[in-house]
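Hey, can you fold this one?
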Amino acid sequence: MTGRGNREAMPRAWRSLKAGDGLGPGFSREPAADTAAQRRSNIVKKLHPDQKGTRRLTERFGERLVCVRYRTDPESGRRFTTVEIVVEERAPTLPQPAPAHKLIRIGWGENELRETIKAQGGIWVRDKKLWKVPADLVRRLKLGKRVVPEGA
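Sure. Predicted structure:
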């Protein structure tokens, strides 16, 4: 459809929404019919929610609206209005701290290393036949190659 036509005759995406979708009017999970034209389109203008030209979309999407982009397709000259909205918000997950102790293997005849480990706070774990050593000691004594994974 080119030019200005009868607005009532034009299909609206929000009519296809089912009750309880929670997406709001005018927002559909279905892609637009001509996504290729939208992908090759150029951004003409980008507006934030508090700027002129975003009033209706700010009313529609509220606090979820991040920005509005006006795009044009260079081949057909069609204009698109796109919105960026916040769909989900979560608290950040914090990385798990590194274990304070590591399990290392010390050979039977390495008496000097074993005495050093005991003096620095290492503990013999009888059922695993490994030494439980503070992680900083493993770094200081460069024992990284002797570390055994916790599940082993």
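The chain has two domains: 22-85, 101-148. Let me know if you want another pass with a different chain boundary.
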